[in-house]
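Q: I have two molecules that I believe assemble together. Could you output structure tokens for the complex as a whole instead of separate predictions?
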Amino acid sequence: MSKYFDDSASSAEIFLRHTLNRRELLLRGTAGIIAFAIPLGAHARPTLDEAIRSFTGGAEVRTGRVKFEISPLVENGNAVPVSVDVESPMTAVDHVRRIALFNEKNPQADVAIFHLSARAGRARIATRIRLATSQVVVAAAEMSDGSFWMSKASVIVTLAACIEDVSKS
Amino acid sequence: MSPSHDARADQRTKTAARGEIIEIRALVAHPMETGYREGPNGAVIPRNIIKRFVCKYAGEEVFAAELFPAIAANPYIAFTTVATTTGTLTFEWIDDQGEVQAASAEITVT
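A: Yes, here they are, computed for all two components at once.
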């Protein structure tokens, strides 16, 4: 797992570990502004392809330029490390605008959408995701020229996330 | 946004050369309750996730993320930014209930 934490591109780094602190501000009034399109009911999720299409607005998505790292065999679906590295010069005229993650079989197809700019210097993100069962996961990138690129990964999960039941523990 | 929010920010190596790409790793404590689980009484536990994360550098947004229930509890997000100027990096995590957790870090650019 150390590959996620040893990144030679960064000789200076900031590791921010923020604990739950009850002094957080209450952002009243703006709480409802960020609205996500949550399609249909809880049991009728869009397919993986539909989710990707809603991200691209129907544009063609080519395979390539996206390096998606995720373990092919995962013991614990509650926290699966992933990283996405997109081939891009990250200049003002040619950079990655968004990186998105989608899944095939969780209750919801979206995982995350990251917004980048030329100021990132490098198009690389890492996070930890939940996988409810063995499935296909997709990393897609939108470039500043409007093109879309993606990479797919198949993951086998031996202990699933999302379905654990508090009442039975 | 109390200064004590910075208490857990790691103080090592916060100096960078201008133009250098720095990696930022942000970790926040949050249950990321999916809204798909049942509690002991059989009732569904209401969804409460961090749905948005924003990083500003000297007041300007340099990175943001929209998160969904498939992001693991205690969200970890790593990303990069180019060191441009000495200043403050601020971080905000906003959840479904409108609660904002904030942190900041100073960076010296040489």
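A: One point stands out. Confidence is low (pLDDT under 50) at residues 1-11, 20-42 of chain A.
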